[in-house]
Amino acid sequence: MNRRDEDYSNISTSQWKLSVGLTGCLKTLGIHPVIIPVLLFQFANLEELRACLKREYSGIVFTSQRAVEAVTCAMSSLMGVEEREELLSKLRSKLTFVVGEATALTAETSLGLDTIGKESGNADDLVPVILRQLIPCKESKTLLFPCGNLRKDSISSGLESKGIQVEEIVCYHTICHPDLQRTLRNYILKR
Length: 191
Description:
Elements: H1 5-8, H2 13-28, E1 39-43, H3 46-54, E2 59-62, H4 65-78, H5 81-92, E3 95-98, H6 101-111, H7 123-134, E4 142-148, H8 154-160, E5 165-176, H9 180-190
Helix pairs in contact: 3-4, 4-6, 7-8
């Protein structure tokens, strides 16, 4: 199976490595999988996200790699080098909360952020981690939460119920891949 850029341009490097690894493993068992992308991720509200990044927060919450990628994109495509470095320095001085090791790795490698909470596997498990960090603090307790359109309400409701304000900004949309039907039809016809 060959990787074609038009088919896989919207999956992350870690997802691609995982699919290649799984494909190789399955092939050793005599199974020849076909990877058909079913979802597409589109960045949204990048200018608004950039404006949010310039405001003062106690920290930032990432529950997905896509949100980290959106912040990286907003910073690199909409800012000059000096402005970007200044904002990165500001971000690095704030608390950065993440769900999962993959999101932590993306935040660390893309933005150079030290992360908290990578052991949490979902948003529900991250809320207590955030509360343990922020409840003892006396400073402002507002967090920026760049997220996707399909996010759960766990972060916002769990934190706001304890007096911590969350500013959500939808920075990417998850949609059905527009070529899914055609790709499936072509695959079936080739069989």
